[in-house]
Amino acid sequence: MRFRLAGHFRYLFCGVALVLAVSAVIPQGDSYAERLPDDSIYLLNSNWRNQFGDRVELKQFIGRPVILTMFYTSCAYSCPVTIAVAKKMKSDLDKRGVDDVRFVLVSFDAERDSPQMLRAAAEKYELTGSNWTLLSGSSEDTRELAVLLGLKYKKVAGGEISHSNEFIYLDRTGVIRARQAGLSEEYRAFLEAVK
Amino acid sequence: MRRGPFAIALGLALPAYIGVGECSADDIPSPKGGEEHRSEHFVSLEMAQIPAGVHEPFILGKNDLKQIDIREFQINRAPITNRRFLEFVRASPEWRKSSRKRMFADDLYLSHWVDDLTLPDGSEDEPVVYVSWFAAKAYCATQGGRLPTVAEWEYVAVSDEASRDGRRNPESVKRLLEIYSKPAPARLPNVESMRPNYYGVKGMHGVIWEWTSDFNSMLVTGESRGDSSLERDLYCGSGAANVSEAAKVNYPAFLRSGFRSSLQGNYCIHNLGFRCVLD
Asked: Which of A91, B35, B249, B272 counts the most CB atoms within 10 A of its CB?
């Protein structure tokens, strides 16, 4: 009896060890989620829609490096530049062999940027492939995310939104590791932080 | 998160320097009578009714909105006190000092409290301070409310005792400047001792700064070192943020704007509290 029990435990032990070994070799999103640091933006509960109309929570990006910026689709002046810079960053990262970075573009314009508007923008700027996610949400969630990220914005005349231009690199646990302010293409130091 | 030296300067030094202290009943006696015309604004001991109207914000950049429509709302007649915040913290353990997350409240969160559930002696009716924007927002949500917008807060704040807009009354402007130039008190006054404005709302000036839901709409840059091309590049469409004529008679609003622009959502500061509104 004692021997048989020990045998069962041995199988159990091997099973557990196997699971641990596999999860150590292939980090799963869930393992990051279990121990999110105190300063992870993924502690925030907020709901978004992407350019396909799917519901998205930011927690979905746990386990991947993310470059996040905020914009809005009807912005004529800075946002096309922002998107052009993001695409150039993507191509530079590809050259470096880093191809699992998610580019997340979150709209400041909760009132007008429907998933259809996001989709039209994604098509216009050729943001295709699974690396690109465009998001919009409620006014409250948008405000809260901007506060969390230290970004500023306000409505001004003519339906425009005056806003910060900044890229933010989030590591796989959602901690802000680097910021790139402005629209400059001098972002080498910023991209070096991405891993 | 960033915390520029300027933010600390504004957050700590400026209020101490210009003084946000004041306003105990001894300093400035409450007006006698006058409660009748405010009765239409009386909702409860907690809340005052604010009628719909149009707010003229004081900073007018080239593209800034010159008028903002305000819907009717109710606002706390006084800043939220330590006592009320303690009730909230009891019911919401995630907002206790020992369990708060750094992302949502920095290390100074409730640092004036003795421990998770103990207030300093005699501080029950003082405004709660050392609370982050996220904590303030969470408190208001549990009351079925929200933080006021900058426009709503300022709309209430421009009233003096006699009228909805005291900005054109030289006496009111002068007194406000005096309030804002007094040194900060060692101890915050009880909220009940604060003088009410036209709506019966107390403590809007001189006691503490207050959180607003969209404090991060101030694109006066916190790290401003002049109007460099870099600065202009950081912000879309704010290159010509000029102070208007109207702003010049509302210097306190200019100070508040500068203060707000220096904040981050997780900051907890010794003279920054809040009140809530209901739609």
From this structure: B272
